[in-house]
Amino acid sequence: QVQLVESGGGLVQAGGSLRLSCAASGRTFIIGPMAWFRQAPGKEREFVAAISGSGRTTYYADSVKGRFTISRDNAKITMHLQMNSLEPEDTAVYYCNARREYTNVNYWGQGTQVTVSS
């Protein structure tokens, strides 16, 4: 099994920045791609950004492209999401996701709240 713990959420004014982190533990050697998702009140969980197992390939939702940067440190088994130019529409609970390599088995963190005030 894999355990994921997010940190770094908080309250920030519009235009500000936050850096989210996701620390993995357990059988981390089975982790492949990782991603961030978010869920705003009353809305479905949506994709934010993803990164390949090697860290060389990244993907972003159109709504965050150019503002957010995803990265991972495979030595420390951590993933980060640098969020700049935050907007009130970015307010949500942000979830860390990891996929077991070569499978569709997903692991999720408990989420961290990000609130952007206007």
What's the short story on this structure?
With 118 residues, the chain is an all-beta fold.
List keywords for this structure.
118 residues; mainly beta; globular
**What's the quaternary structure here?**
single chain
User: Which outline best applies?
Assistant: globular
Category by helix and strand content: mainly beta
The low-pLDDT segments are none
The topology string of helices and strands comes to EEEEEEEEEEE
**How does the major sheet shape up?**
7 strands, mixed
The total of beta strands comes to 11
User: What is the typical, i.e. mean, pLDDT?
Assistant: 95
Count the DSSP helices.
Answer: 0
N-end to C-end Cα span: 40 Å
The rounded Rg comes to 14 Å
Helix content: under 10%
| Beta strand % | over 45%
Describe this structure in words.
Strand 7 (68-73) and strand 8 (78-83) form a beta hairpin. This protein is mostly beta strands and 118 residues long. Strands 2, 4, 5, 6, 9, 10 and 11 form a seven-stranded mixed beta sheet that branches. Strands 1-3-8-7 form a four-stranded antiparallel beta sheet, with no helix packed on it. It has strands at residues 2-7, 10-13, 18-26, 31-39, 46-51, 58-60, 68-73, 78-83, 92-100, 106-108, 112-117.
